[in-house]
Amino acid sequence: MKKIKLIGVSKSEDLNTYIFPKDPNFFSFIEKLLPELSFDSNDYYYECFGENTNEKNFKEFLEKTYDKIWAAKQGNYLLEIIIGKDRIFVLIYTKKDLQQEISKIISKLTTK
């Protein structure tokens, strides 16, 4: 998996926001992130991205898609993915004591 570049981070009491470029490698990133957060990745992929599960299709999907939001809740996490015109935002709502764990997971899957 080619690591995706993390271009911004924002943290507050119950929310971590991670900002990524609109890059086809985002799909590989999400594929690795979801199981780390105990999400059933197969169900979530299809709900978010439909049939766009390979890099070529996902690149075309990203080129045509913006202002889309997907959300899912699992255990201690509420995850939102917002696809903007030029960037993708991943919002993870959780208790403050779990935020450091999320940061470690994100850092091992991304580059700066």
3D structure, described in words:
By secondary structure, the protein is of the alpha+beta class. It has one domain. The protein has four helices and seven strands. A hairpin with a 3-residue loop joins strand 2 and strand 3.
Give the N-to-C terminal Cα separation.
16 Å
> Helix share of residues?
25-40%
What is the general shape?
Answer: globular
Biggest sheet statistics: 5 strands, antiparallel
Let me know the number of strands: 7
Average pLDDT for all residues: 79
What is the H/E order?
Answer: EEEHHHEEEHE
Instruction: Pick out the low-confidence regions.
Output: none
User: Helix segment count?
Assistant: 4
Question: Could you give the order of strands across the largest sheet?
Answer: 2-3-6-5-4
- As an assembly, this protein is single chain
Return the domain count: 1
- Please identify the structural class as seen in this structure: alpha+beta
How many whole angstroms does the radius of gyration measure?
Answer: 13 Å
Amount of beta strand: 25-35%
